[in-house]
Design goal:
The complex is a heterodimer of chains A (115) and B (233). With 115 residues, chain A is an all-alpha fold. Chain A has four helices and no strands. Chain A folds into two domains: 36 residues; 70 residues, no CATH class. Chain B is globular. Classes of the chains: A mainly alpha (115), B mainly alpha (233).
């Protein structure tokens, strides 16, 4: 797939910057004088967990599950991230450890040799 | 507001001390962002530009993958909105703290990332220090660390092109996984996780990966609203 040309990238950055600022300024504009509605509590609680699940699966969408090594690098690295994170509770160690492990798997092709 | 000799300023020093953990984190995650961006074929200046104007961790990571896919503007806007939806509630707990912070209030709001939010809501303003200045330095320092990390990573990526970046984008997956675990620990119901997992896998199979994000998010939200009686509020 061809990446986005630079002229479109600038428009995209402008859109992202404006939308991001909107999400941050939103409560200051709408609730500086009145109390927030109940639906916002609902959004606050359940949208972030759903979005995170979707993003994890989205970032794995190009994995080829049907051919060797059958997504094993992704699965093992994600398990590693999960275990290290639950154990150490340090996002940096979990993210970097998992990424380095994954890079070793895919650059050496070590898991393909299992099949 | 004049700032005489900022580095000997007590307020600046106190703010710097609070932000040291963020310094380490932002440098590391910023460097990974910069590497990803140059790996996708873009100039390092774009990392500088994005980190100054957008200033959002997960938002900028996902932006890189949407650039690489040449995603549509509507999808970009919607995904950014939903990825940052948590920010819409952050401000609620800062409405009082940000009173009397004129004229820098807009900057404080702009710079309200997860990390800055957690600092501003937990630290106490030291004695003899103006709240407005203290908040300003914390926000500005964090923003600076983020920009520095992004530019360092992008420089490294564009000058050491022999560095093999294959697999680096897994940093994105790992970041989302960590955020997912944090949500899992906090959330009182596990139903939203199940809904999102089932819906996104079905969308991936039956609709395809091009429009996966929009469809998964919208369908999950609809199912969530339909099932809202089963969820603790």
């Amino acid at each position: 797939m061809t990446p986005m040309p630079l002229s479109r990238v600038f428009i995209a950055i402008l859109i992202i910057a404006v939308v991001t600022f909107f999400t941050r300024v939103f409560p200051f504009i709408f609730f500086s004088r009145r109390n927030p509605p109940k639906i916002l509590d609902f959004v606050q609680q359940y949208i972030p967990p759903m979005v995170m699940v979707i993003l994890v699966i989205y970032s794995l969408k190009d994995t080829s599950w049907a051919s060797a090594p059958f997504g094993l690098p992704e699965i093992i690295s994600l398990l590693f991230v999960t275990i290290i994170h639950l154990w150490k509770n340090n996002p940096l160690i979990s993210i970097f450890g998992g990424t380095i492990l994954y890079m070793i798997f895919v650059q050496t092709g070590i898991l393909k040799t299992l099949f | 507001m004049t700032v005489p000799n900022i580095f000997s300023n007590k307020c600046f020093k106190e703010a710097f001390r609070c932000t040291i953990p963020v310094l380490l984190g932002y440098l590391a995650i910023g460097i990974a962002f910069g590497l990803l961006l140059t790996d996708a074929g873009y100039h390092w200046l774009l990392a500088l530009f994005m980190s100054i104007t957008i200033y959002a961790g997960a938002g900028q990571y996902i932006a890189v993958s949407m650039f690489a896919q040449n995603a549509g503007f509507t999808e970009i806007a919607l995904v950014t909105l939903l990825v940052n939806a948590r920010h819409m509630v952050y401000g609620l707990s800062l409405l009082d703290k940000f009173r009397n912070t004129k004229p820098i209030t807009p900057y404080l709001i702009f710079a309200l990332t997860d990390e800055t939010y957690s600092l501003l809501t937990t630290v106490t303003v030291p004695d003899g220090v103006k709240k407005r200045e203290f908040y300003f330095y914390i926000s500005l320092l964090d923003h600076f660390y983020w920009i520095a990390g992004g530019v360092l990573g992008a420089w490294f990526g564009s000058f050491f092109t022999s560095f093999d970046c294959t697999g680096l984008s897994f940093a994105l997956t790992a970041l989302f996984m960590v955020l997912l675990i944090e949500q899992w620990k906090q959330c009182r119901s596990k139903l939203p996780f199940a809904i999102a997992a089932i819906v996104s896998i079905l969308v991936l199979i039956f609709i395809g990966k091009e429009n996966m994000l929009i469809f998964s998010i919208l369908i999950s939200i609809i199912i969530l609203i339909l099932l809202r009686k089963r969820l603790p509020s």
